[in-house]
């Protein structure tokens, strides 16, 4: 397993240290001649040539791609306008994103091809062709219009992983409404904050979804959230589980009732290239989650082009991405990138170990799936569950594997390669972010020699660099900060309602350059090795969690005076969440209080943010100016010696007493 990150003196320092552990990795896996022969891009030389054009002549490159890949109602006049971060793309052009994902395939051989294959956790299967998907989206677009929704209105989506989740996103896109998908694991409180931040008019939810044999109570969560959301006028409720729920008169409408009689053809309007498509909330290093805004043409082009090359999509593929649509991976690589390419997308509602830990392998054989895109945390769980669950199945339909969300440790990479890919399938380790919209650093499977643990080389149009704290390019093999120096079409446009925070968060450290928040290094071949976040954002099981959100949830508990959240290396989750809390006078530390604090964070944010460990402290280590020294707490949480400069500590005895506790 990955060795523990060493102490953080400065961002660059931590990167240097961690690199030693992965720099022993020297294996190289070249694409097989057989894979190369059939690949959409079959040589490293071809990648290098196209990449050079994409960064040296971006206008020429993106003009050609936008014309070839997208269906325009009105051609654009200008490819890109303005400097980063305010670059506008494909100015003057008009298109409809839903039309680009569905209507373009009608009247072609794809019309009766499966767009979606769905398997519910109880084992129910539904297949929907492109033609059927079109009818569903058209009907829902009418339902939305009948409710009075117009272009620019916000719609919150809080649904299980069922085809209707995709249909809802596409119906929003069709009428120009902006969707914000909230992962079903978020609490009513988190849902309320997101609805209020973007002032959603409509919430689309379900009477539940299946997970580990139980029903996730989505509707009661919506009811609770809506006690404090004045903007919401209507709740559209899908029947999935037949779980009894309350329907509020005048506000709540059943999907199947609204649907009744809605026409199944809908004339889609064309929207400007820069028309907002969706808002997706993600954690930052300070404050509440940020509403990342993506717009239409540039985002769609990034998602479509990367899907084509990174997943080497072919007409016959049956592609499975295990991400929920509540995350950016579900947006770009379940919905927009795949459907715009006319692919068959397989989606699964439930848990990977329900009823047994071989559920994924069973489904791959059952549906002859050819591509699997999942997260290292899942791969490590599969490893732990044991090879026997895998060996029961053939897995011979698979031809390509993908990884996303966090660094994949070489041991997990090798297991994925051998046990799942049978040494036959290339692995694309794709680095990207909610903000980048599309895959940003990645191998192309027919072109790029793979090194386990490296996301390899930048995708087309991505000017990625490693810089030191002053913004100077770092020499090869020394760590630094990962930045992108030129604009790219699928980049975020702003943070919803807070453009100043957008500029501050991403463009203030190195003006004119996008700072990713990640530490990384580039090896002698120019390969990128991502170390992880170097800001106060944690990556727990591939989910981004801001320490500030956890801390503010904790201090809202009546017993807590102060709190600090840090990550601790974890074999399964990548990082586990450890919180240090000091109590208000008169409150006693106890096991029961630890449980109550965990439950409180679960209630405030969602169970994905529940701390793995709660540690009580008499006081927290601070600088003389009163700032909590998190790097010291990180060492304490990891059980390693406190290293680095401690001269700014106000009181060293605090550290000694923290080490004694637990
Ligand atoms: O730290 C990087 C990590 O996930 C962060 C982005 O999180 P989010 O916006 O939730 O998007 C996740 C899915 C795209 C990054 O800043 N990350 C993502 N992919 C990788 C990764 N770290 C290493 N290797 C990856 N392949």
Describe this structure in words.
The chain is an alpha/beta fold and 662 residues long. The chain folds into two domains: 33-456 and 464-522, ANL, N-terminal domain (Rossmann fold, 3-Layer(aba) Sandwich); 541-661, ANL, C-terminal domain (GMP Synthetase, Chain A, domain 3). Helix content is 32%, strand content 22%. The protein has 21 helices and 30 strands. The strands form nine sheets. A seven-stranded mixed sheet has the order 5-4-17-16-18-19-20, with helices on both faces. It has a five-stranded parallel sheet with strand order 7-6-8-11-12, with helices on both faces. It has a four-stranded antiparallel sheet with strand order 21-22-24-25. β4 and β5 form a beta hairpin. The protein is globular, with a radius of gyration of 24 Å. It starts with 10 loop residues before the first helix and ends with a helix. Mean pLDDT is 94; it is low at 1-20. The chain binds adenosine-5'-monophosphate-propyl ester. Residues 282, 328-329, 404-407, 429-434, 455, 516-518, 530, 532-533, 539, 544 line the site of adenosine-5'-monophosphate-propyl ester (PRX). Adenosine-5'-monophosphate-propyl ester is lined by residues 282, 328-329, 404-407, 429-434, 455, 516-518, 530, 532-533, 539, 544.
Compact description:
The chain has 2 domains: 483 residues, ANL, N-terminal domain (Rossmann fold, 3-Layer(aba) Sandwich), CATH 3.40.50.12780; 121 residues, 2-Layer Sandwich (GMP Synthetase, Chain A, domain 3), CATH 3.30.300.30.
Please outline the helices and strands.
Blueprint: H1 11-22, H2 33-38, H3 44-56, H4 58-69, E1 78-81, E2 88-91, E3 94-95, H5 97-101, E4 114-119, E5 125-129, H6 130-146, E6 154-158, H7 163-175, E7 178-181, H8 188-198, E8 202-206, E9 209-211, E10 214-216, H9 218-225, E11 234-238, E12 252-254, H10 255-259, E13 271-272, E14 276-282, E15 290-295, H11 297-310, E16 318-321, H12 328-340, E17 344-348, H13 359-367, E18 371-374, H14 376-385, H15 388-391, E19 400-404, H16 410-420, E20 427-430, E21 464-467, E22 480-484, E23 494-495, H17 499-507, E24 514-522, E25 528-533, E26 537-540, E27 543-546, H18 547-555, E28 560-570, E29 574-583, H19 591-604, E30 613-616, H20 630-638, H21 653-660
Adenosine-5'-monophosphate-propyl ester (PRX) binds next to helix 12, strand 20, strand 24 and strand 25.
GO biological process, one term: acetyl-CoA biosynthetic process from acetate
EC number: 6.2.1.1
Binding site for Mg(2+): 555, 557, 560
